[in-house]
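R.M. (postdoc): so does anyone remember the format we settled on? I'll just put the C-alpha cells first.
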C-alpha cells in the first residue's frame, strides 16, 4: 500500500526529521530555492556524518563517533597540537567513505609528521 509523504514523515524518528529540516534550511540558504535532489545529491550529503547523522556544517559532532573524530568541519592543527594556530578542514568524502575523520591542512610551524613520545629516544 502506498503511503503519503505525511505518513512517512510521521513514521520517522523525530530527531531525523529535525536534522532533515535543518539540512533543508541550509539548502534554501545556499541555493535560494529548493534544489533538485538528484542534481545536488553530493551537496545534500556533503556535511553529514554517515555514522551518527551530525550536521558538521552546523558545528555538530558526536564525541565518541570515530567518523566525527571529536570535531565538526574544522579542527586545530593536529601536528603541533594547535600551537601554530593552523586550521585543518574536513575531507568529507574521505570521512564518509572510510568512517573515520579525515582533515587536510598544513602546520604553520612546518611539522609534517606526528611523533609519539614512546617512539622517540
Amino acid at each position: 500500500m502506498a503511503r503519503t509523504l505525511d505518513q512517512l514523515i510521521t513514521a520517522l524518528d523525530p530527531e531525523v526529521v529535525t536534522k532533515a529540516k535543518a539540512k533543508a534550511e541550509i539548502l534554501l540558504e545556499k541555493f535560494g530555492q529548493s534544489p533538485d535532489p538528484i542534481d545536488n545529491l553530493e551537496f545534500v550529503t556533503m556535511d553529514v556524518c554517515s555514522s551518527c547523522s551530525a550536521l558538521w556544517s552546523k558545528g555538530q559532532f558526536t564525541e565518541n563517533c570515530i567518523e566525527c573524530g571529536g570535531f565538526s568541519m574544522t579542527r586545530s592543527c593536529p601536528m603541533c597540537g594547535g600551537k601554530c594556530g593552523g586550521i585543518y578542514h574536513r575531507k568529507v568524502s574521505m570521512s564518509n567513505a572510510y568512517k573515520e575523520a579525515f582533515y587536510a591542512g598544513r602546520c604553520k610551524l612546518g611539522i609534517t609528521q606526528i611523533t609519539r613520545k614512546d617512539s622517540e629516544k
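R.M.: ...and that's the designed sequence above, right after the C-alpha cells. Also worth knowing: The first helix runs from residue 5 to 11. Strands lie at 74-76, 87-90, 103-104.
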